[in-house]
Amino acid sequence: MNEENDRLRWQLKGLRQDVPPSRDLWPGIAARIAELPQPSTGSSAGRERVASLPLRARRLVPWAMAASVLLTVGFLWQATHLTSAQEEPLIRQEAVQLTRDYQGALAQIQGAEAHPELGGALQELDRSAEEILAALDRAPNTRFLLEQLRRTYAKRLALTQRAMMS
Amino acid sequence: MLNAAVTDLMTDTTALAAAETDNGLVRAAVGGDMRAFEAIYRRHASRIHGVIQRLVGGQGVRADDLTQEAFVRAWQALPKFRFESAFSTWLHRLAVNTALMELRSRRSQPLFDEDEDRLDDLGMADSAGHQTALSLDLERAVATLPPRARAVLVLYDVEGWKHEEIASELGMAVGSSKAQLHRARQLLRERLGVEA
């Protein structure tokens, strides 16, 4: 058993190897840094907390929530939209929340994909949302991207709902 | 014997030169030089991505995202680097911390740490037939471990951390770190079809 353990440990040590990322991450890093607030202002802990949210990873998590949340999201979004620019670092968090609620709402009205005539439009909207989320990953403090994301989700939901009713 | 001594000396010299280069780049980057920080990224990206990938279980996009996150956090924390330890060690620790923070943030989700026993059961069921387990190579087997057990195993057996360091980073008792390691090795052996 000891021999087996030793062999396993040696093999594990052998796993310590460099593995390059699947793509060049520098453009994304540079964009994120460019969007960071100037140092020595505000709460760095707060900024780090926001930055620690991996947007793309999180949006894939399934959320079983009622479609009615979307209305709440709309209200919440409008409320935060009207607040001061001091809350800018929260944009990325808002995008995460918006995406969660959108996925919850969408889960309640799935089935529109069965309508082939709408397939292209739905795919196009999904692609747009993907691109906006990727852009938000690169520039998490950009409010217009959040607005664009909200509009895209709203269109996607409206179209899905229309397909369901037709 | 002499060859070994010469090789050791060359390794030391190379490591020293690398550390000097790092320190120079860090000083420039702290002064706002983005090209210096890009050079730091290029020098360390593979190493940082490697450890993050092992900690999160080899998930491509997630490991990429966390690597990006680690470098953004490094940029933010760079002014706090005191040149008391090697920059590569500092960056490595920051990357581990970034990955663990994300692991901790996922604890509230189903099928994570609180539910590890359920995951273990899944693993046991999988390895019961041995066919699947035998075909898994070590890296893939490590990736299938429950997140917390995997983190302890990777940090201890692969990265060479001490239990005290792991316990502090993961916010657990030293005894828990040891227990998790024991459990992780046990699961790993089962998944690899090795007699315990």
Task: Describe, in plain words, how this protein is organized in 3D.
The complex is a heterodimer of chains A (166) and B (196). Chain A is mainly α. Chain A has a domain at 110-166. Chain A contains 8 helices and no strands. Chain A starts with a helix and ends with a helix. With 196 residues, chain B is mainly α. Chain B folds into 2 domains: 2-105, RNA polymerase sigma factor, region 2, helix turn helix motif (Rna Polymerase Sigma Factor, Chain: A, Orthogonal Bundle), CATH 1.10.1740.10; 113-192, Arc Repressor Mutant, subunit A. Helix content of chain B is 78%, strand content 0%. Chain B starts with a helix and ends with a helix. Residues 108-135 of chain B have low confidence and may be disordered. Chain A binds chain B through residues 1, 4-5, 8-9, 11-13, 15-23, 25-26, 28-30, 32-33, 36, 39, 44, 47-48, 51-57, 61, 137, and chain B through 34, 37-38, 41-42, 45-47, 49-50, 53-54, 60-69, 71-73, 75-76, 79, 98, 101-102, 105, 109, 138-139, 142, 153, 157-160, 185, 188-189, 192, 194-196.
Give the topology, please:
The complex is a heterodimer of chains A (166) and B (196).
Chain A: H1 2-13, H2 26-35, H3 44-51, H4 55-59, H5 69-81, H6 91-108, H7 116-138, H8 143-165
Chain B: H1 2-30, H2 34-56, H3 60-77, H4 87-105, H5 116-128, H6 131-135, H7 138-143, H8 147-158, H9 163-170, H10 174-192
Helix pairs in contact in B: 1-2, 2-3, 2-4, 2-8, 3-4, 5-10, 8-10, 9-10
Proportion of residues in helical segments of chain B: over 70%
Number of strands of chain B: 0
Can you count the helices of chain B?
10
> Which runs of chain A of at least 5 residues are low in confidence (pLDDT < 50)?
40-54, 56-73, 78-88
Secondary structure class of chain A reads: mainly alpha
The average pLDDT value of chain B, as a whole number, equals 81
CATH H-level superfamily of the largest domain in chain B: RNA polymerase sigma factor, region 2, helix turn helix motif
Mean pLDDT metric of chain A: 68
What top-tier CATH class of the largest domain in chain B fits best?
Mainly Alpha
How are helices and strands ordered from N to C of chain A? HHHHHHHH
* Distance linking N and C termini of chain A: 67 Å
CATH topology of the largest domain in chain B: Rna Polymerase Sigma Factor, Chain: A
Largest sheet of chain B: none
- Residue fraction in strands of chain A: under 5%
> How would a textbook summarize the main sheet of chain A?
none
Helix content of chain A: 55-70%
* Multimeric organization: heterodimer
